[in-house]
């Protein structure tokens, strides 16, 4: 299948998927080369301010909460950027050296409460299955089709509505994910991935103990909770928008195509420059899913390098709010729809005598 966003300057409609892959692989090749100076500078301008903000939050607690809260929000934004470094290291794209990626990725994992090797394994599954209806369930957000929802029990419908509720999804779920879920390994994980969870738990405990000794247990817990709450909510929202928009791509089995899944199934989230900086260019998610080997600091240049990428319709900060109302995948209409679609469906069925 050919991505709908391609123009006549890129790939002709009659081309095969293999031709698409050959075309974009040649284009992205030059952007897959990591830059050590850019990577080191990103570490400096991210971890440096983040460490300073932690100290300022500690000092501000003795002055006023009105100072601590905005500092925590800013620190949460920097922690999102830390996670992007962690993310790139997991893809082996941040540095040329595999060892450097693993070391920096592990350190960033301590700060983001995420086990490096275990997350890398789950995230690789996400990249290999994004947009495939037959391979949902690992490293993604729970999505049901309209038909699946209608055929589900009342309890399963209730659980699904609860899981997709914005309060649960963006406030409660991030805390559960980073504080609890990431402390345990998957039953399907290999020994190395399972061990990485145990080592990460020990490392997090060690850092928590050290900071509790330096700042005091209460101060540490308050700061850590606020910062991780902000970063977690922002991070889950970004991931949600990247794969939960109205015209997103979903197909089953043999109809699934990697190129189409990347260019149509991953959004181009066009953010204001300051938010783009804090989110490490991950809004260029269509580029990232085409090639996870492109480091975040090269994503924007790659996007503007060819019409194949530039012509992908962007989602803006304002238009992304519509994603709040999208709940189910309609296989007939090839769109994500809201619960109101179910009411319209039942009404039409009653009129036609089917219900």
Task: Explain what this protein looks like in three dimensions.
The protein is mainly α. 61% of the residues lie in helices and 4% in strands. It has 16 helices and five strands. A three-stranded mixed beta sheet has the order 1-4-5. Strands 2-3 form a two-stranded parallel ribbon. A hairpin with a 4-residue loop joins strand 4 (328-330) and strand 5. Helix 4 crosses helix 9 and helix 5 (116-129) crosses helix 9 (191-215). The longest helix has 27 residues, at 217-243.
* Low-confidence residue ranges: 1-19
Number of strands: 5
The major β-sheet equals: 3 strands, mixed
In percent, how much strand structure appears in the residues?
under 5%
- Anisotropy-based shape: globular
Strand order of the largest sheet: 1-4-5
Residue share in helices?
Answer: 55-70%
Give the N-terminus to C-terminus distance in angstroms.
Answer: 36 Å
Rg computed from alpha carbons, rounded to a whole number of angstroms = 21 Å
**Tally of helical runs:** 16
Mean residue pLDDT:
90
Please render the helix and strand layout as text:
Elements: H1 17-28, H2 36-61, H3 65-90, H4 98-112, H5 116-129, E1 144-145, H6 146-150, H7 154-163, H8 166-180, H9 191-215, H10 217-243, H11 258-265, E2 268-270, H12 273-278, H13 285-290, H14 299-303, H15 307-310, E3 314-316, E4 328-330, E5 335-337, H16 340-352
Parallel strand pairs: 1-4, 2-3
Antiparallel strand pairs: 4-5
Helix pairs in contact: 2-3, 3-4, 3-10, 4-9, 5-9, 8-10, 9-10
């Amino acid at each position: 299948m050919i991505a709908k966003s391609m123009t006549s300057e890129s790939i002709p409609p009659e081309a095969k998927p293999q031709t698409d892959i050959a075309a974009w692989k040649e284009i992205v090749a030059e952007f897959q080369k990591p830059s050590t100076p850019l990577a080191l500078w990103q570490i400096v301008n991210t971890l440096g301010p983040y460490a300073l903000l932690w100290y300022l939050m500690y000092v501000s607690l003795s002055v006023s909460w009105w100072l601590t809260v905005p500092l925590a929000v800013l620190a949460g934004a920097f922690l999102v950027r830390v996670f992007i470094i962690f993310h790139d290291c997991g893809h082996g794209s941040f540095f040329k050296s595999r060892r450097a990626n693993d070391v920096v990725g592990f350190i960033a994992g301590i700060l983001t409460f995420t086990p490096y090797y275990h997350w890398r394994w789950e995230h690789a599954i996400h990249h290999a299955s994004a947009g495939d209806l037959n391979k949902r369930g690992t490293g993604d957000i729970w999505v049901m089709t309209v038909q699946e929802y209608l055929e589900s029990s009342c309890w399963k419908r209730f659980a699904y509505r609860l899981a997709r509720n914005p309060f649960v999804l963006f406030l409660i779920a991030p805390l559960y994910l980073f504080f609890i879920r990431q402390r345990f390994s998957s039953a399907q994980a290999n020994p190395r991935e399972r061990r990485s969870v145990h080592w990460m738990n020990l490392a997090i405990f060690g850092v928590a103990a050290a900071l509790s000794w330096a700042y005091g247990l209460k101060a540490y817990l308050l700061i850590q909770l606020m910062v991780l709450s902000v970063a977690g909510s922002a991070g889950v929202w970004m991931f949600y928008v990247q794969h939960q928009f109205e015209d997103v791509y979903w197909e089953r089995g043999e109809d699934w195509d990697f190129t189409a899944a990347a260019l149509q199934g991953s959004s181009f989230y066009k953010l204001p420059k300051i938010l783009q900086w804090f989110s490490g260019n991950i809004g260029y998610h269509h580029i990232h899913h085409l090639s996870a080997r492109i480091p975040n600091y090269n994503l924007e240049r790659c996007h503007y390098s060819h019409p194949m990428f530039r012509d992908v319709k962007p989602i803006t900060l304002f238009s992304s709010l519509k994603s709040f109302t999208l709940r189910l995948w309609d296989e007939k209409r090839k769109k994500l729809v809201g619960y109101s679609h179910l009411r319209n469906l039942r009404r039409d069925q009653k009129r036609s005598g089917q219900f």
